[in-house]
Structure formats: structure tokens, C-alpha cells
Amino acid sequence: MRRKNRNLLNHIHPLTRVYGLLTILIFTACNSSFTPKPNGYFKIDFPEKAYKKFDTTGYPYAFEYPVYANVVKDSTFFGDATENPWWINIEFPQFNGRVYISYKEIGPNRFDTLVKHAFVLTGKHSAKAYSIDDSLMITPNGVHGMFFSVGGDVATANQFYLTDSTRHFLRGAMYFDATPNADSLGIVNAFILQDVRHLINSFRWKK
């Protein structure tokens, strides 16, 4: 009987040592410190800044826009026909972004109503925004307007309107075809924002 017990113990001891080592390794791994890596984003090669004119016959406005963007006529607004034929989109295919441009005539539309509507549209993002800053503008061509900067994970971080207060009212909003994320879109947003400011500063009414 003693011999059998001795043989049994000889078989158990190696297994016990293995389980003991595994237990130590598991507890050591669980108690070791872990430092998560920060989120990484793809490197973006931005094109060189260069601009060309949008001065199409029949349109009441003209401006300069980037050579790496396309101007596309917009014929619908949320499924409905646009109010007039002078609505356009400035598309940035490399960045999956666009600037929506809508135009309204003052007269058929009240000026104060158009301004109020611009503020309402910007305010729709207030639920996810941590800030909304508005700034009055007077461009080198004497065009007046307002620029809105919306902070946070919102669909459009930059909006504006331009007007002469008597005949013309134009509104612009920059969007990206991506999940709103201020961190990942920040560098692209800053790059296109320069183009939006150039558009505004080169903007003029034609009639």
C-alpha cells in the first residue's frame, strides 16, 4: 500500500507544479499594468493650394474655388426641387466632403426671416456641439455676412451666409460623408476651411 501511494504521489507532483506555474503566470498577467495605444489615423497627403474662378453665365454670384474640387449643380433639396436654379455643391472627392450652397432672393423672401433661418439651421447641431461661435464678416469685395464655427462631433462644423441685405442671400455649409468625429476630421476640416475662407473673400455679387 505504501508503494502504491508513493507512485501516486509521484504522478501528482509534476501536474501540481504545472498548474502552479500557470496560476502564477495568470495572476501576474492580470496584475501587470497596461497602457492603451492612442487612436491612430491614416496620413493624408494634401494637394497644393491653387484656385480657379466660378463665373458661370446666368448666376448672380461669382467666386474662386480649389482646383481639386468640383462645382456640381444641385437640383433637389431633401427630395424637393430647389427654389431656383442657382443652388450648387462644391465637392471635394479626395476627402468625401462638400460645401452645400443655397441661394435665395430677398423680396420673395424676407431678409430677417432668412437670417433667422440660418441661425436655426446652425442651432440644430447644438445637441452634440460644445460651442457655437458666430462672427460678422465684411469681405474685401464689400460683401456682408456671418460665419458659424460649431465645436464637437457634428455633421457640419462650418457654416456661413453672405448677403447684400436687399436682393441676394447665399448660405453655405460644409459636410463630410463620414461619421462625425472632431478628432479624425480635424485636420481635413482645417484644410478645407482655408478654401471656404478663400471662397468667401473672393466672393462677389454680379448684379
Structure description:
31% of the residues lie in helices and 33% in strands. The strands form 3 sheets. A 7-stranded antiparallel beta sheet has the order 3-6-7-11-10-9-8, with helices on both faces. It has a 3-stranded antiparallel beta sheet with strand order 1-2-12. It has a two-stranded antiparallel sheet with strand order 4-5. By secondary structure, the chain is α+β, with helices and mostly antiparallel strands. The protein is globular, with a radius of gyration of 30 Å.
* Helix percent band: 25-40%
Structural class designation: alpha+beta
Roughly how many Å is the radius of gyration? 30 Å
How do the strands of the widest beta sheet line up side by side?
3-6-7-11-10-9-8
Any key phrases for this structure?
single chain; alpha+beta; 3 helices; 12 strands; 31% helix; globular; disordered N terminus
